[in-house]
Design goal:
Distance between the termini: 42 Å
Largest sheet: 7 strands, mixed
Number of helices: 8
Shape: globular
């Protein structure tokens, strides 16, 4: 088969196999442009850390102005594409409004993200400096971009919030939905393999290790078998909770009480009270108070799979 025949076969595929074509529609946001936007946002959040040459205090105003101009133009352009895709009639003016609403949040976002850097430094005895945290710890990138995307998510912007968090996901292996609510002083040690769903809430001073999933137990479907959107599906994690590697916590009604510890490989689908410790002993899940030796023993058998599971 020559190239002309391959071309004709592809064209026939585009005609017959719809659903993954986007032809004669609105211009979609560019992934390359969104990736550059993510990089520029990191330069704005952490001036002097990601430049090829040093940045002095005297050079800072000009640097911030240049970076803001780049972000402003690119963000407005990509937001307009997103809004046109969603059928917003006044996409241009609305994109400008959302751009301003996003940029005005950066001073407060920097204060919030600073707490995440502090949590990483205080939470990892291997950390030698704050500079090492910002330059080399993947949680800084993925949490910072999620906090930016979270603002856009609550502005009702389609596509772009997920594209921003996906940039962090690709770079770190950590997938945090832009809808998730994250408290201050959030630290994900090692980062790889962590999944946090759209309706999860994470309290203040929470520490996760690699492979943790805050996911959905199952999802409701409508009369046509399609997932019902917008319902609470993911757990709530209280303040000062530590969740060790590869623990899985599922369900929109599941809450982990404050100051609790979830051990490695725990599979949890019910709420536990504050000041609890959850861990496996043989085939049993033990949930006990951090201050008592007596605990509640549960059967740790795998759940039945009569529903489709979402993580």
């Amino acid at each position: 088969m020559n190239l002309e025949q391959i071309k004709q076969a592809l064209l026939e595929s585009y005609r017959s196999d719809g659903g993954i074509n986007h032809l004669d529609g609105s211009n979609l946001p560019s992934q390359a442009s969104v990736n550059q936007l993510a990089e520029d946002c990191m330069h704005l959040l952490f001036p002097g850390y990601f430049e090829e040459s040093g940045l002095s205090v005297g050079e800072l105003p000009a640097h911030v102005e240049r970076t803001l101009i780049r972000i402003d133009r690119r963000l407005a352009a990509e937001l307009e594409k997103c809004l046109r895709f969603a059928g917003v009639a006044d996409a241009g003016p609305k994109a400008r409004e959302h751009t301003t609403a996003m940029l005005v949040q950066f001073p407060e976002l920097r204060k919030l993200i600073r707490t995440d850097v502090e949590a990483a430094y205080q939470g990892d005895p291997a950390a030698r400096s704050v500079e090492e945290i910002i330059l080399a710890y993947p949680c800084v990138l993925v949490i910072s971009l999620q906090r930016i995307a979270h603002v856009l998510y609550h502005l009702g912007v389609p596509l772009l919030p997920r594209m921003l968090t996906e940039y962090g996901h690709e770079r770190t292996g950590c997938d945090i939905h832009p809808g998730a609510r994250l408290g201050t002083h959030f630290f994900i040690d090692h980062c790889t393999g962590v999944v946090i769903g759209e309706t999860a809430t994470v309290g203040r001073h929470v520490k996760l290790y690699q492979g943790v999933t805050l996911g959905a137990k199952s999802f409701e479907v409508d009369d046509h078998g399609q997932p019902i959107k917008g319902v609470k599906r993911h757990p709530d994690i209280g303040d000062h909770v530590t969740i060790y590697a590869h623990a899985t916590i599922l369900g929109g009604e599941t809450r982990v009480g404050e100051h609790s510890i979830i051990g490695s490989n725990v599979w949890l689908m019910r709420s536990i009270p504050a000041e609890s410790v959850a861990y496996f002993k043989a085939d049993n899940l033990i949930v006990r108070s951090r201050h008592k030796k007596d605990g509640l023993v549960e059967n740790a058998a795998a759940p039945a799979h009569e529903h489709e599971w979402e993580i």
